[in-house]
Amino acid sequence: MIFKDYYKILGFDTNKVSINDIKNAYREKAKKYHPDRNVENTDTEEIFKDINEAYRTLSNEKLRRKYDFKWYRFVGMKKKKKNKPKQKRTIKQMLTEIFFGGINRNKQQKEEKKPQYGDNIITRITITIEQAFFGTNKQLKLRTVKGRESSFTIKIPAGIQNNDRLRIIGQGRQGKNGGKNGDLFVYVNIANNKRLKIEGINLIYELPLQVWEAALGTKKTIKILNEKIQIVIPTLTSSGRILVIKGKGYKDGRGGRGDLHIITKIVLPQKLSKKQNEIYQELKKVAL
Length: 288
Hints:
The protein has helices at residues 6-9, 19-33, 43-58, 61-83, 91-100, 105-113, 129-134, 211-216, 274-287, and strands at 121-128, 136-143, 149-156, 165-168, 184-191, 196-199, 202-209, 218-224, 227-233, 242-245, 260-266. By secondary structure, the chain is an alpha+beta fold. It folds into three domains: 6-83, DnaJ domain (Helix Hairpins); 121-191, HSP40/DNAj peptide-binding domain; 196-274, Sandwich (HSP40/DNAj peptide-binding domain). The strands form four sheets. Strands 6-7-11-10 form a four-stranded mixed beta sheet. The longest helix is centred in the first third of the chain and has 23 residues, at 61-83. The mean pLDDT is 84.
């Protein structure tokens, strides 16, 4: 996967810019590369798409935090190393390099004794929609550098969003010479099941219906997140129809909930009895 530098797309060399800077840069770039103003240049269409993609991400506080973590990994670290000033060598250091092979033992020993922070650990876990909605405790097993296995439990807060990141301070690699341990970053993946799916703050439920239920209409009771919900199926309901139940979806992070989308699916019996076959034959005659 190719990493896109959204900051560079909007004309910045750093991520240390304000939301107003981003908005101003977006307006300027969008105006310059809008396809309507560049009819003869087809390349601007892709540039315009990248500009809009960059703005959507960087203008959203939550999306920007996630993106900055990736940006620093792919771009920021390289810039930091590239811009690191070279230290000027003294005459003593140059003579040491000539006569002792470039090894300044005292300096090297001092560097080795400095406190060093431990590396961070990044991992990913998968939980169910129910676990994400109500919150849960999840046991993690991580293998250390020396091959030892570390096991501990983390708390997943109720209403966590898909791909949210949890930070557990001090549970990363061990520091050296008294330096602090690194941190553990856990990305949470919410897994869909056979019938229930999550899309943002909405829940999608596939409801199987028999042919006569779809044709004549009926009432169905389903259980979603430990709650029984009664659904009225109108007459002549086709397969793929969407019924929306307000406020019965996933948590929105502000004390409310999204919606529950019921998608109907007409199912047929795997085998017809003699009586069922006769009924379908009669239905066929009526339909004709």
